[in-house]
Each structure stands twice: as structure tokens, then as C-alpha cells.
Specification:
Elements lengths: L10 H11 L3 H28 L6 H12 L4 E3 H8 L3 H13 L3 E5 L7 E5 L1 H19 L6 H17 L14
């Protein structure tokens, strides 16, 4: 996604300048922020994709494998995976279809809920998710291109934005022990 050679000016800064020049100054900062986040997403996704593609994974496939690996038994109902990944059930079905075809997961009937299907991490999937996570940590997350303190600030700002948009709620405080 990155340009082969850097542009001689920041197109988002130029768009902001144009926004102001056209009488939309009250919206210029938000337009620039939204545009910056979307462009940053493209740049970040490109880095992640370049690392995962040689392993035969997309970020969506990695997310599902990683989610399953975090569970006690390596299994989760498909509906729970959809909710935790914050994607439509159809998207989870599509990812599971591809992972199942590659032997990374399998579907099983839920032992107590006849309506539910479990997606279960296979041994092959467990090996691949560990390898992919190691490579991703080494090649992307260890050197993200943003200083650690700024990463924490950025994450905090974006979490607040996400929460305020209804993406999640803060957990209730844990009561003090008696």
C-alpha cells in the first residue's frame, strides 16, 4: 500500500488546507484525523499482510486461530468467535471454511447445545498460529515505527473513541474483598 517513493507533500495536510479554504474549517481537523487513521490502517495492514502471506494466512485467519489458541480447550462456538472478533457470522463462517479446508481447524457439534457448532483448533493450526505470532512479533510488533509511549497514548485515545461509539463497555469494577 505504501507509495514506491514518498510523496513530496502530505496529501492529508493538503486536503485539510483545501477543507479550510472551501469554508469547512470546523470539520477540517476531524476530516484529517479520520483520513490519517484510514491511511495508517492501510500502511499497518500492508506490513502485517507481507509477514502473514508467505505463511498462507490473512489477518482474519490469524485472528481466529489466535482466539482459539487462547481458549482452554482450543474450541469456541462459532457465534462466540463472531462476537469476540466483532465480525458478522458470515465472515467467521468464511474464515472457518478456508481454515478447515487447510486442516487448521475442524467443526464439531456442541456437546450441550444442539443448535451450536464449535470451531476447534487442530494441532496443525496450533503450530501455525505460534509460528505466525512469533514472526509477526519479530518483524512488525517489535519495531512498529511509533515510540512506545506514543503507542500507549494512541491506543488509549482510540479505545476511548471505540467505547464512546458503543464498541464495548468498561467492565464493572471488581468489589473489594470482605
Amino acid at each position: 500500500m505504501a507509495s514506491p517513493t514518498p510523496l513530496p507533500l502530505d496529501p492529508i495536510a493538503e486536503a485539510k488546507r483545501q477543507w479550510i479554504a472551501h469554508g469547512w474549517a470546523d470539520s477540517a481537523d476531524a476530516m484529517a484525523a479520520y483520513s490519517s487513521v484510514m491511511r495508517a490502517h492501510q500502511l499497518m495492514y500492508s506490513r502485517v499482510d507481507a509477514v502473514l502471506k508467505p505463511l498462507g494466512l490473512s489477518y482474519a485467519r490469524l485472528e481466529l486461530l489466535r482466539l482459539l489458541s487462547f481458549t482452554r480447550g482450543g474450541a469456541l462456538p462459532m457465534a462466540s468467535a463472531s462476537a469476540r472478533l466483532q465480525v458478522h457470522p458470515t465472515s467467521v463462517t468464511s474464515v472457518v471454511d478456508r481454515l478447515e479446508k487447510d486442516g487448521m481447524v475442524r467443526r464439531e457439534a456442541h456437546p450441550t447445545d444442539g443448535r451450536a457448532t464449535l470451531v476447534v483448533l487442530s494441532d496443525l493450526g496450533r503450530v501455525l498460529v505460534e509460528k505466525a505470532t512469533t514472526v509477526l512479533n519479530e518483524e512488525v510488533f517489535a519495531s512498529p515505527g511509533i515510540p512506545a509511549e506514543e503507542l500507549r497514548t494512541m491506543t488509549s485515545i482510540l479505545a476511548r473513541f471505540r467505547r464512546d461509539c458503543g464498541d464495548f463497555t468498561d467492565p464493572a469494577p471488581t468489589p473489594d474483598p470482605l
